[in-house]
Write a structure and sequence with these properties.
mainly alpha; Amino acid/polyamine transporter I; 15 helices; about 0% strand
């Protein structure tokens, strides 16, 4: 019991990571993976979660030991490192948030049966509502609310997965043939799946900043072992939920030749209907609310994190500005991100497919770079050598960097050939 109390007290960054990660990569990509390619796609999902693990773990390790964010670590390695990460953040900020809000808006329209509303209008309402929540509640509200939301989501999706398995796999259409994985279309899908599974690698700095916020809120910093235990629980949850969504897509759609739409509203309807058709109409509200809550919590955590990261980068790039306060400018950062991403949503005409493809491509190509930057941080003189990652973790890091680099090079070869 004492260990459980310590764990619950330290609950925070890992929980927020789980909430943020259980979004488009799970609801959209994992479901599509199972629907189009079947159970075999569990292999790249497990590989992605395993090979990316060190990149995120280093965000907890560096901040817990040094009391600094990963972004400050980049600055200490050299200003060029910070500028590079600023560029990566700029490129991903206006695609990831927009994609998340588009999917969430589609689910909202479906849940409340509001076909006359446009995705852009609902997205604007979500931007305003979530911005208000973040500005008023900040980190404490995020942590407190997500303890409830993520717990309910995990239980709900576990029950749904069990029901789907109990119901049995849908009968395939006559002469069904599985789509090939290792052609150009299959490889591009794999790149998107791995690129955003469990989430973008640059989100490692998000965990770092959430850890700092947690330590400041609680007035107590846990040991590295305790901090990693809390993070590992959240990371394991994201991996399990990805497999749940894969199973649901596989059991309910694989073999039916159903094509999942790139339009947010149509896709939202397909996701909810594939559950209810297989389980029963009685499950509609249960499933629709779970799916919407999944995306809503992801939007909230990603919006908060990107605001914090942007302000941290600005602060370290303009050290001469003594009046700049990350805390004081937090509200402005949240509002600016909402406005800019609403413009992105409007320009892309709420086409979820384009937004998700762009966001996943950028995250995938730049993942090895961010992974290497994180490794340099945790193996620098900022940390005593006893806190450096073990040899096996270093080896796993290099394996992940090589794996992601080869995939990125192959993608570029496909595009240029």
């Amino acid at each position: 019991m004492p260990k459980l109390k310590i764990f619950l007290k330290n609950l925070g960054p890992g929980l927020l990571f789980a909430s943020m990660a259980i979004g488009t990569s799970h609801l959209v990509l994992s479901t599509k993976a199972g629907a189009q390619y079947g159970w075999v796609m569990v292999i790249p999902i497990i590989l992605a979660n395993l090979l990316k693990y060190p990149f995120f773990e280093f965000g907890i390790r560096y901040t817990n030991v040094t009391g600094r964010s990963l972004i400050e670590g980049y600055r200490r390695r050299g200003k060029g490192w910070l500028w590079l990460y600023a560029f990566i953040t700029l490129m991903t900020t206006f695609t990831i948030l927009a994609a998340l809000y588009v999917v969430t808006a589609g689910l909202f329209i479906n849940l409340f049966d509001l076909p006359d509303l446009s995705v852009a209008t609902v997205a604007l309402g979500l931007f305003l509502f979530i911005s208000a929540i973040l500005i008023i509640g900040r980190y404490k509200f995020l942590e407190d609310s997500l303890k409830v939301v993520v717990s309910i989501l995990f239980i709900a999706l576990l029950i749904t997965t069990v029901l789907v398995i109990f119901k049995g796999q849908v009968s395939p259409v006559p002469n069904f043939e599985r789509e090939p994985i290792f052609n150009d279309v299959g490889i591009l899908f794999l790149i998107g799946l791995i690129g955003w599974m469990p989430t973008a690698v640059e989100a490692s700095s998000w965990i770092s900043l959430w850890s700092l916020a947690k330590y400041k809120l609680s007035g107590n910093k846990p040991s590295l072992k305790e901090a990693l235990q809390e993070f590992n629980s959240g990371y394991l949850m994201t991996a399990l939920l990805a497999i749940f969504f894969l199973i649901i897509g596989w059991m309910t759609l694989y073999g039916t030749n159903t094509e999942l739409s790139g339009n947010a509203v149509t896709f939202a309807d397909q996701v909810v209907q594939l559950f209810t058709t297989h389980i029963g109409n009685w499950a509609y509200i249960f499933i629709a609310v779970s799916a919407f809550a999944t995306m809503f919590s992801t939007c909230m955590t990603a919006h908060d994190a990107i605001s914090r990261v942007s302000l941290d980068i600005i602060g370290y790039l303009t050290p001469e500005n003594k009046d700049f306060s990350r805390r004081r400018h937090y509200a402005a950062g949240v509002i600016v991100l909402a406005l800019v991403n609403f413009v992105v949503v409007t320009v892309f005409s709420a086409n979820m497919g384009i937004l998700v493809s762009l966001a996943t491509f950028i995250s995938f190509v730049l993942a090895p770079v961010v992974g290497y930057m994180n490794l340099k941080n945790v193996m620098s003189h900022d940390l005593p050598r006893e806190f450096w990652p073990k040899k096996w973790l270093q080896g796993l890091t290099f394996a992940g960097i090589i794996f992601l680099t080869l995939f990125a090079l192959y993608y570029c070869w496909i595009e240029l050939s």
